[in-house]
Amino acid sequence: MFELSASTSAMRPSSLTADAPSMADSLPSINFGFDDLRDRMARFTERFDTFIAKGRKQVLEERNRFRINVAELQDDQRLKTREIENLANRCASHAQTIDKEAAETAELHVAIASITQQRDARAQHRDRTRTEIAAIRKQIAQRVSAQQHYAKAIDEQAHLNVPELDFWQTYLCLRIEGTGTVDRLRFVFTHVDEKDWEKEVCFDLDTEKKDYRVASVKPKVDAEQIGRCVERLNDNRDLGPFLKRMRELLTAAPN
Q1: Euclidean distance between CA atoms 49 and 42, whole angstroms
Q2: What are the pLDDT digits (tens) for 13-22?
Q3: Residue 28 in 3-state DSSP?
Q4: d(CA 112, CA 205)
Q5: Sheet containing 213-218, strands listed edge to edge, beginning at the edge strand earlier in sequence
Q6: How far apart are CA 217 and CA 225, in angstroms?
Q7: Separation CA 28–CA 244 (nearest Å)
Q8: Are 206 and 184 in contact (CB under 8 A)?
Q9: Which residue of 56, 65, 110, 230 is 20 to 30 Å from 126, comparing CA positions?
């Protein structure tokens, strides 16, 4: 409208002079308030921008807080999940422990029952052993008494054997030696050769076992003849005739 008024004044007739008042000048002055509107729009824009900036900042802050909360919740969830897994593992381990303890308890009961049986069996064995020990002690006492009587008889016989042994040593030109082996004696005869009275013949008698045996002879003699001599010795335990017969066999043996 303002621009229209300006163009209307331009189109006025040229016959009007410059000093004459125009109709436009006679119209009342209208103030549209563009400057005030501009200022208000500027302030509104500033407040709106400030509002938008605050809103954006608030949204960003809330979004950041939301992300932080979500991250914390995720961490908490992971922790809870880990705790749940740990608890599940503990429960499983506890269940296994309970099962193991139950099995061990059953084994202990079986072991206790077995030990109780063994104890009873050993108690019975102990009682039998005591009875057997008492019987063995009685037998030992009897055998000791018998051995004492036997030793006494042997001692008495030894007093008789010494003169007899001296007789056979002198009569048979016999010398008794050790062989270096336990329970083995060597009988050495001299004066078996008229040409050489110092010549010696001998044999080793093994007395380790109940039945004696001739371990070696020098010179070599028929084994069957020696066997018969040893058999008679084991039958009658008479050493004198045995020594006499062995001297005869060794003397007759070829050199």
Answers
A1: 10
A2: 444 444 555 6
A3: coil
A4: 61
A5: 174-178, 184-189, 201-206, 213-218
A6: 12
A7: 191
A8: yes
A9: 110
Question: In the structure encoding, which two tokens stand for residue 32, read together?
Answer: 């549209």
Amino acid at site 190: T
Whether omega for the bond prior to residue 219 falls within 30 degrees of 0, making it cis, is yes
Q: Copy the structure tokens of residue 241.
A: 């005739």
Residues 175 and 189: their CA atoms lie apart, in Å, by: 6
Q: What is the CA radius of gyration of the chain?
A: 71
| Phi/psi of residue 154, nearest 5 degrees | -65, -40
Is the pTM higher than 0.70? The answer reads: no
CB neighbour list of residue 213: distance below 8 Å, 6 or more residues apart: 205, 206, 230
What count of other Cβ atoms lies within 10 Å of the Cβ of residue 214? 19
In this structure, which amino acid lies at residue 12?
Answer: R
Q: Say if residues 183 and 212 touch (Cβ distance below 8 Å).
A: no
- Within 8 A by CB and 6+ apart from 241, the residues are 232
Query: Are the C-beta atoms of 172 and 247 separated by less than 8 Å?
Result: yes
Tell me which residue has tokens 């908490």: 76
